[in-house]
Fold:
Amino acid sequence: GTIPAALCELPVLGELRLSYNGLLSGTVPHELSKLRRTLTQLHLAASPLLSGTLPLELGGLAKLLALDLHDNVRLTGTFPPLTNATQLTSLNVGNCSFSGLPSSLPTSISHLYMNQNPIQATVGDLTKLLSSIGSNNLHVLHIGFNWPLCLDGLHCNGRNHTSTGLTRTGRGARVNNPTPCHLGASCEFLLQMYDEDDQPAKV
Structure:
């Protein structure tokens, strides 16, 4: 069944962990806004019957530290603005069906996983998002295998392999790290576009 709205009435609920649950269906409830002062962990990963778009109310969870929605291929649309979730450090939405980058993220983000989504965006959109976050807190960035993520005017032939810590041989966008990223250390990265001949593109 659906996520019970009654769970959002629990006045001191700090962690909601319902991952790997084949019994859940429906959408992520907007009633989660009632937990904006208490909820620190929201884990709904690998619940294959969850569907629809994310509610705007997620962006108002002021105490949220971790949001894990990975492996939910029926979750679609774009991300709600998360700027007001000022304590959020980990966002994992890998292997979903989101079509757009978040319009905003808090600077507290240290672990960002957006791999394996059909994101429709340009390198400018991605650069703007990463610039708004800054690199002081960003330890892990994984945006690999987002097929449509291409620079306007370049033909990526459906291949885009992007991930921190490694450079793959493929066309599209890649993140090259001057220094390796490790937990507990700041992450420096360089976003580089490659053309059809797998050569650095002029942007």
Residues 22 and 89 are 27 Å apart (CA to CA).
